[in-house]
Amino acid sequence: MPQASSVVVLDFETTGLSPNLGDRAIEIGAVKLVDGEIVDSFQQLMNPGFRVSSFIESYTGITNNMLRTAPSCDEVMAAFSEFIADENLIAHNASFDKRFLDAELERINCSYSGEFACSLLVARRLIPDAPSHKLGELVRYKNIENNGVFHRALADAQMTAHLWLRMVEDLERAGIVKPSFEFMQTVSKTAKGKLNLLLARSRV
Fold it and tell me: Which of 1, 7, 9, 15 fits a 20 to 30 Å CA distance from 97?
């Protein structure tokens, strides 16, 4: 059974909230974890074929000038498809990143066989006392080292990876040895009131 500590953690920066409204990816960042160690990373700006808004420029720090010379989304996503191979995938607020991953890969007739888990949903269950479950707040709450960069894809993917591994470690300390990827998915879907029962049943 695939381990929770061997996954690809990814993050997109985009022109807006939904590919269904014509929004496109403008940056992808990802790290590959094997047995809890970052063994590889992927980062690339990509040109969506149109100008991005001044809001997105200020929010991400990614300017139209930077994107002008970037490779096309199609070119970048073809390379990224090879990077993720058949690994399982993690993202913070995964439904957002999955929508863009699916939409961008569909454009180039690529697919992937791994499954998604959401670090935000897992954190809601395992870190219920955090002031909020935004990535930056959780990083601060768990004292995870970071370089202070937010809303850039690779930095966010790295922080998400460290947060994910911290949650895996917390489970191991609670007696759940080498939690599987599937177990983390189950945690994310378990009602708050039933979490302790799930954890009790899963201890060695």
Answer: 1
How many angstroms separate the CA atoms of 167 and 185, rounded? 13
| Annotation: CATH topology of 7-202 | Nucleotidyltransferase; domain 5 (3.30.420)
Q: What backbone phi and psi angles, to 5 degrees, belong to 98? A: -65, -40
Q: What is the mean pLDDT of the chain?
A: 96
What's the distance, Cα to Cα, between the start and end of the chain in Å? 16
Closest CA to 47 of 29, 68, 19, 65: 68
pTM to 2 decimals? 0.96
Give Cα separations from 101 to 8, 77, 201 (angstroms).
13, 8, 35
Cβ–Cβ < 8 Å for 119, 134: no
